[in-house]
Amino acid sequence: MPVATGEHLYGMVIDVDKCTGCGACSVACMSENNIGTLPDETDKIRSITWLRVYQIDNGRPYPDTEVAFFPRPCMHCGGSWGGFFQQDADPEGHHTPCVSVCPATATDYDDETGIVSQIPTRCIGCRYCVAACPYHARYFNWYDVPWPGGLEQSLSPYVAPRMRGVVEKCTFCYHRYQQARDKEFAGGEFGEMDYQTACTEACPSGAITFGDLNNPEHQVSKLLRQRHKHAFRLLERLGTNPKVYYMTKREWVRKRADNYLPGEKIHRFAVGS
Amino acid sequence: MTEQGHEHKRRSPADWWLFVVGLVLFSAIGWVVTPAIIYAEKPQPLNFNHKLHGPDGDAGKSCEDCHSFRDDGSFAGIPRVESCLECHEEVMGETPDEKKLVEVYIKGKKPIPWRVYAKQPPCVYFSHAAHVKNAGMECTECHGDHGTTEKLRPYQENRLTGYSRDIWGWAIHGWADPPERMKMDDCADCHRENGVREACFVCHK
C-alpha cells in the first residue's frame, strides 16, 4: 500500500475483466481536458492521449486467443515503496520517476492528495520526464493544436490549454477536486461522488473506480480489500508505487503486466493491506 | 619622464554631474518609458460607478447582490447584463454611459465585455470561496478600494503576454496603492503564513 503522509491519497482501480476496450474513457478524457486533434492523427508517436487503451493478447492461436485491454492514465506514482530494485527506499520521501528528474520543478508530488501535478507553463520541454516515465503516460506537444473553425471557443475554462514545446499528462481531473473543494468551502459536503474523474464517469461497463485510497469507506478501498488477490499494478517490481491498480482473475494477464520470464512465478506483493 | 599610467586623476564636478544625469535619465527610462512600451492601454466598454451602485449610493445594493456565490460554491464574478435590467430598463439619467448600457447592451441583448483587472493567467486557479467564505477575508484585502470607486481606471494589458498589469502591480517596488499586486509570490507568502499547503496544484490547474 502506498505511504500515506497526507490526508488523501487518490487512486484508481480498473477491472481489466470488465473493460471492453471501447475507448469511451479516452474520448471523455480528451474533451474534458482540452486535448485537441492534430492535422495528422495517424502519426501516433506525436498524437496525444492522456488516457490510452492498450490491447494485449495471450499469444495463442485461434480458438484459444484471448485479449485484454488496459486503460492507462497517469499512474501518479508515490515512488517510495521498497520495490525489487529499491530495497532501502526512503519510506517517507517520494521518488516519483518524472518528478525526480524534472530540472524545472514543473511537476511535483502533492502530499495531501497524492496527485502528481504538471504545470505546462513552467515546462521547458526537455522531455526528461517522458523518458523517465515507465508507463509512457507523458506526452510532448510537438505542435500547437490548430482548433479549427472557432473550436477554441468550446475549451473548458477549468483546464488550461497547452502550447507546443511542453509536456502534459493526466492530472486525475484535478480541476474537479478544486470544484469539489469550492463546494466544501461554501458549506457543502465533499463526498466521494463530488470528485470523480471524467473517464470513471464515462466507462459504460463500470470498469474504472476512482476515490481516496486512504478512506476505508470509498469504493476503491473496499475493492482492494475484497479482491486483493486479483489486484496488481503495472511494472510493479520497478518500485514506482503507482496509485492505479488493475484487477483480473486471469493469470496470464497478470503475468503480462510485468516483465516475468517464461515460467517465472508471480511475485505477490501485498496489495490493499 | 612622467609615469602617465600611474597618474591619479581626481574626479571633477563635471564627472559627478554626468553620473547624476545618467542615473536620473536611465532610471526615468526604466520606470516611466519601459512600462509605457510594455503596457497597452485598453478602454473599458463603459464607465461603471461602484460608489453610486454600492450600499451607500443611490442604488443601495450590497456587494453580494451583484457578486454572488452559486450554490455549488463557485463565484459568479461580474454580474450579467440581465441583473442591470431591474433598474436600467429605460434610461434614467443623462450620462452617455448609461445610454450606451441601455441601448447597446440591454436592448441589444449583448454581454458587456468588461476587462477584469484582477484576471489571472489561464493556468491559475483562484477560489473566492476559500478566501471569502472560509478564511473570512474582505474584498479590499486583494482588490483595494475598487468597490467604492466612481470611475474605472484605465485597464493596461501587457503587450507580450496579454495579461493585466495588476498581476505584477503598478509599481516595481510593490507598495503602490491601489492596486496591490497579485503575483505568485504574493499568493504564496500569505499561504505560507496561514499554513495552506504548497503544492503547485493548489493554485494551478
What is the compact description of this entry?
Chain A is an alpha+beta fold.
Q: Could you please describe the fold and organization of this structure?
A:
The complex is a heterodimer of chains A (273) and B (205). Chain A is of the alpha+beta class. Chain A is 18% helix and 12% strand. Chain A contains 7 helices and 8 strands, in the order E-H-E-E-H-H-E-E-H-H-E-H-E-E-H. Residues 1-5 and 82-89 of chain A have low confidence and may be disordered. Chain B is mainly α and 205 residues long. Chain B has 8 helices and 2 strands. The model of chain B has no long low-confidence stretch (mean pLDDT 87). Chain A binds chain B through residues 105, 107-113, 115, 117, 119-122, 157-161, 171, 174-175, 178-179, 181-188, and chain B through 69, 71-74, 121-123, 125, 127, 129-130, 133-134, 197, 199-201, 204-205.
Number of individual domains of chain A: 1
**Which series of helices and strands of chain B comes N to C?**
HEHHHHHHEH
**Rg calc of chain A:** 19 Å
Strand residue content of chain A: 5-15%
At CATH level 3, the topology of chain A is: Alpha-Beta Plaits
Low-confidence stretches of chain B: none
